[in-house]
């Protein structure tokens, strides 16, 4: 299966964008632990830690903030991580995963289309005006008839003229 380079590039860009925006930022806000996949890139020498802070600036209003920190395991120092570098790395990982899934889906779809176009016989379309004695001519039936005709000629059961006459009739029925 061969895909155009432009199709693959545009698919990758879309998957990367969706990995960053929808998955890392969007779902990452709902399920913050999803962004831990970025740890090797944003916090290679430490542990990523999440802090939730809840504020009630006035009655009936609650604000929750999530802040990621990189804690150095040796010194215990905390460094606040920005949302954008973390989302960029985590989103890139999710974008690659989406891209892989989309390409696999494209390959499966293309294979199904190829089977429909070349491999699977289709049922003949019959009109209302055709009679019950109508027998569709499948390519398999024609192939079998041609083989039978060739065997009859090889066994000298029919003449060359009869062979050519029947052969042309079979080919006309296509």
Can you describe what's shown?
- It is a single chain.
- The protein is α+β, with helices and mostly antiparallel strands and 174 residues long.
- It folds into 2 domains: 5-119, no CATH class; 139-172, no CATH class.
- The chain is 55% helix and 16% strand.
- The protein contains 5 helices and 3 strands.
- Strands 1-2-3 form a 3-stranded antiparallel beta sheet, with no helix packed on it.
- α4 (139-154) runs antiparallel to α5.
- The model has no long low-confidence stretch (mean pLDDT 83).
Give a brief description.
The protein has 174 residues and is of the alpha+beta class.
Task: Record keyword descriptors for this entry.
rod-shaped, 2 domains, 174 residues, single chain, three-stranded antiparallel sheet, alpha+beta
* Count of separate DSSP helical elements: 5
Which of globular, elongated, flat, extended, rod-shaped describes the shape? rod-shaped
Biggest beta sheet attributes: 3 strands, antiparallel
Average predicted confidence as pLDDT: 83
Low-confidence stretches: none
Give the strand content. 15-25%
Q: What is the strand tally?
A: 3
Query: SSE order, as H and E?
Result: HHEEEHHH
Strand pairing plus helix content: what structural class?
alpha+beta
Q: Report the radius of gyration as a whole number of Å.
A: 34 Å
The span between the termini is 31 Å
- Indicate the percent of residues in helices: 55-70%
Total count of domains: 2
The spatial strand order of the largest sheet comes to 1-2-3
């Amino acid at each position: 299966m061969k895909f155009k380079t432009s199709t693959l590039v545009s698919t990758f860009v879309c998957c990367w964008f969706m990995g960053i925006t929808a998955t890392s930022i969007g779902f990452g806000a709902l399920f913050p632990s999803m962004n831990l996949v970025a740890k090797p890139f944003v916090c290679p020498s430490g542990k990523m830690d999440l802090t939730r802070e809840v504020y009630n600036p006035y009655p009936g209003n609650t604000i929750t903030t999530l802040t990621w920190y990189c804690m150095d395991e040796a010194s215990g120092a905390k460094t606040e991580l920005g949302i954008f570098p973390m989302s960029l790395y985590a989103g890139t990982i999710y974008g690659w995963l989406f891209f892989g899934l989309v390409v696999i889906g494209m390959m499966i779809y293309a294979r199904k289309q190829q089977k429909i176009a070349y491999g699977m016989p289709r049922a003949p379309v019959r009109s209302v005006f055709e009679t019950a004695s109508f027998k569709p001519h499948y390519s398999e039936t024609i192939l079998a008839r041609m083989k039978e005709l060739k065997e009859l000629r090889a066994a000298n059961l029919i003449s060359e003229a009869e062979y050519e006459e029947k052969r042309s009739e079979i080919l006309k029925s296509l």
